[in-house]
Specification:
By secondary structure, the protein is an alpha/beta fold. The chain folds into two domains: 221 residues, P-loop containing nucleotide triphosphate hydrolases (Rossmann fold, 3-Layer(aba) Sandwich), CATH 3.40.50; 78 residues, Alpha-Beta Plaits (2-Layer Sandwich). 32% of the residues lie in helices and 29% in strands. The protein is built from ten helices and 14 strands. The longest helix is centred in the middle third of the chain and has 16 residues.
Amino acid sequence: MAAIVSVKNLSKHYDGGFQALKDVNLDIEQGEILALLGPNGAGKTTLISIICGLVKASSGSATVGGFDVVGDFRQARSLIGLVPQEIALEPFQTVIDALRFTRGLFGKRNDPALLKDILEKLSLWDKKDAKTMELSGGMKRRVLIAKALCHEPRVLFLDEPTAGVDVELRKEMWDVVRQLKADGVTIILTTHYIEEAEAIADRVGVISKGELLLVEKKETLMQRMGMRQMRVELMQPLEVMPEILKPYELDYSADERTLIYSYEANGERTGIASLFADLSKAGIILRDVETRQSSLEDIFVGLVEGK
């Protein structure tokens, strides 16, 4: 499928020598949900801001729907909806008027049915006549999402969209994002909630210190880079690690009387059979055994730390 957003050799230098982005290349397919993960200051917001025309790149290019974000900025921006991190709303404006005004900025005629549909999906219809200053922080963030959707964009950027939103509402908003994808909207989100990426993303990109470390399908990433851990609970504590077990590089918790064995999730030989055999040779009696797959958070932390 053709890329609806394409970034080529994008870099950003600020006065003083700080480099926020380093030669970033990224193609985003139409209709997918891409989650950009990275610590604070990694370059996520800078990348989004350049694509949305809010920040000028030092070098490289970006296109949206085939339109260059600099040379064809009007056409490119008409395809983009942006939900920024910061909540910036006119305090005395009502919710419905905020949407009407934003839609008018894009040259769109008023469409009451569309605006009602957007507000209902975001659980805001009963607040349509309320001034934005009267809303809670979570509701204000939902108004930002509604404003970003009101001109019917094909690409939606969500910069930390659920920051400050409670868990129940966050899951409701995930449902909204899934529906937008079903409607053909391409969604790029940055998030600190890694479970958010696990729940709704098709692909995951990891960015750190201005470099895009990887972009990969979520399932492929977790299969390729994931580790499994086997937790072995012992009947009796170990006074010393037997020599026969040292090659397995086991982690031992004396308090919990457990051995932790890590192995590649997709490895051809896990070493589990030989470990059990050597545990038996060492005269160690097992109480319980359980395994767990490393999460996307484990993989993310390992990548950012350079592991």
